Amino acid sequence: MPLYEIQHHIQLTSSQKDDLAVAITRIHSTKFSTPKMFVNVTYTDVSETRTYIGGKQRTGNHIKANVRSGPSRTQEDWNDLSMQIAAAWDDIIGKGLPKVRRAAPDPDTSLRSVILLGGLIGGLEAGFVLPPAGGDVAWLKENWAAFNRKADAGDEEFKEMVQEVKERGLLEGRSEKEDMQKAQKSMEEMLGWGDSA
To answer: What pLDDT is attached to residue 35?
Structure first.
C-alpha cells in the first residue's frame, strides 16, 4: 500500500538496503495496521542526478513515500513515523558528517529529508483493491477467505501475510501500538505509577 522510495546519492551496500527496507516495513506496519506484505520499498541512485536545494546544486539523501491518509491517522502519527524512519536511517546508514570543507571529504551519509505524500487515493496490489486509511481491519476481514485460498495454493507471500495477521491479531483490530500501551499500563500498575497510583 505505501510506496517508499529511497533516493540516495551515496553508495549503499546490499545489506544496508536490506536492513533499511526491513526497518521501514516494520515501522510502517506496526505504526498502522498494514500487513508487511503491502509495504513497498524501492531504491533510486541519484548520484548522477542534478539536484538543487535552495537554488544551489547540492547532493542529499531523501526518503519519499506515497501513503494513505485519512482521519484515523493524525499529524502526530505522521511526525512519529518520520522520526522513526530517520532514526532507522541513522542506525543503519549513519548520521552523517558535519558540513565542513575538507580536502578529501568522506561521503555525507546524512538523511536530508523524509517526505510523506498523502496522495494515495486508490489502487490495486497483489490483485486486491486497496482499502482507505484506517480501513485495514474491515478490508482484511472482507478478503480473508481469498487471502487464505492464495496461501493454501502455495503463494509464499500470502502464507507469510496470513501468519502475520494471525500473530498480530489484526483481524480483531488489535495493533502493536495498543499492545505496547497495555503492557506499559500493566507495568505502571505493578510499580504503583500511572493513573492507578
So the answer is: 94
